[in-house]
Amino acid sequence: MKCIKCDFGDTRVIESRSSGDGSSTRRRRECPECKERFTTYERIEMPQLVVVKSSGTREIFSREKLMSGLLRACEKTAVTALQIENLVAEVEKELIDLGDTEVASNNLGQMVIEKLADINEVAYVRFASVYRRFDTLASFEKELELIRSRKNK
């Protein structure tokens, strides 16, 4: 693995750790040349998934795009990067387990929302507001009522 700072061709692994669900391996690396430390993740390459948008357009499932959206939704909350990484891994695994190469964007969004609701309510509402395109205060209030009813179960 090349160093991200000096491009030296042979970094060494300092520590390896399996993710919570076992779907990836996190490795801390160090460059013997410049002493830079960085983290890499090793994952099994999964079959190509295609997301079908509500407009009918198709795009390749992007783990990074999902991570980015979740990071924005979880900004300034107690949700850790590891929790987000695990959530994305769970969603990706569920999609692959379904056996289809295509998934509707609304199904994908619903999977994410359900998992996020169990982690952090604020992040859930933020993600849902973008995913469901809330445009009125009533939309937010309706979603908050759903959260309250889930809590009371």
Give me a quick take on this structure.
With 153 residues, this protein is α+β, with helices and mostly antiparallel strands. It is 46% helix and 20% strand. It has a three-stranded antiparallel beta sheet with strand order 1-2-3, with no helix packed on it.
What does this protein look like?
It is a single chain. With 153 residues, the chain is an alpha+beta fold. The chain is built from five helices and six strands. Strands 1-2-3 form a three-stranded antiparallel beta sheet, with no helix packed on it. Strands 5-4-6 form a three-stranded mixed beta sheet. Strand 1 and strand 2 form a beta hairpin. Helix 1 (63-73) packs across helix 4, helix 2 (81-98) packs antiparallel against helix 3 and helix 4 crosses helix 5 (137-151). The chain is globular, with a radius of gyration of 19 Å.
Class of secondary structure makeup:
alpha+beta
C-alpha Rg (nearest Å): 19 Å
- The helicity comes to 40-55%
- Tell me the fraction of residues in β-strands, as a range: 15-25%
Arithmetic mean of pLDDT:
88
- Identify the strand order in the major beta sheet: 1-2-3
The counted number of beta strands is 6
Tell the overall outline: globular
Number of helices: 5
Give, in order, the helices and strands: EEEEEHHEHHH
State the separation between the terminal residues, measured CA to CA. Answer: 49 Å
